[in-house]
Amino acid sequence: MFSSRLILNTPHYDQLTQLVELDRICLGGLWTKKGYQRELDNPNSSLLVLSIEEFGFIVGCGCFWTILEEAHIVLLMIHPDYQGQGLGQLLLYSLLKEAANRNLERATLEVKVSNQSALAVYQKIGFQLVGRRKSYYQKTGEDALILWRGDLDHPRFREDLSHWRLRISDRLNQYNWLISDLDLYLKRDDKSGKKIK
Ligand SMILES: CC(C)(COP(=O)(O)OP(=O)(O)OC[C@H]1O[C@@H](n2cnc3c(N)ncnc32)[C@H](O)[C@@H]1OP(=O)(O)O)[C@@H](O)C(=O)NCCC(=O)NCCS
User: d(Cα 113, Cα 116) in Å, to the nearest integer?
Assistant: First the structure.
C-alpha cells in the first residue's frame, strides 16, 4: 500500500528555515529564524510542528507560552495547500493537550475579527469569546477578539479532549488522513506513489 506519514513533534533546529518560509506564506512573516530559535530555547514556550515524514515537509505549526498558570496561544498556522482538512483543529487539540499535561489551568489568545476560519477552529475546540481589543492590529487598525478556554485542569477536560480526538479523527479520515496514533504520528493515503518504509 502506498502511503505517507505525517508526524507531530517539536521542530529540530535544521527545520527552522522551512518554518520561517511557512510563517511567511501563512502569516506574512511574523517571526524570523532567530525568533523561532528563541522559542525552541525558551522552556516556557511549547512549539509543535506537523510535517510529512517522508519529505520532511512542514504543513503546520502551533505555539503557546506558559505564563503563570495560563497557556497563551501565540501561533497557529497550516500551509494553504492543506487547510480545511482538520489539521488546524488537530494542532490546536495538541497544544491544549500539552497545556493540560503541563498542569496549566486556562488557555487564551487573540484573533482578528475578520479571521473566520481561525475563529471557527477555536470555537470548535471549546474557546469562548470574552472580550475585544479595539484597533489592536497596528497595520490594519482591526479589532482583536479575546478568546478563552478554562478548566484545563478539570477531569471533565480530559473527556472533552477524547471527544475532540474522535471528531478530529473523523474529519481527517474524510481527507484520507489515516490516524494510527494521534499522539505519535498520522498516516495518509498518498497519490504521489512514494512507498512507506
Ligand atoms: C486558521 C488555520 C490555522 C485553520 O487551519 P485549517 O487546517 O484550515 O483548520 P481546520 O481544517 O481544522 O478547520 C477549519 C474550519 O473552519 C471552517 N471555516 C473555514 N473558513 C471559514 C469561514 N470563512 N467561516 C466560517 N468557518 C470557516 C471550516 O469549514 C472548518 O470547519 P469544519 O471542519 O467544520 O469544516 C489556517 O486557516 C491558517 O493557517 N490561517 C492563516 C494563519 C492564521 O490566521 N492563524 C490564526 C491566527 S489567530
Answer: 7
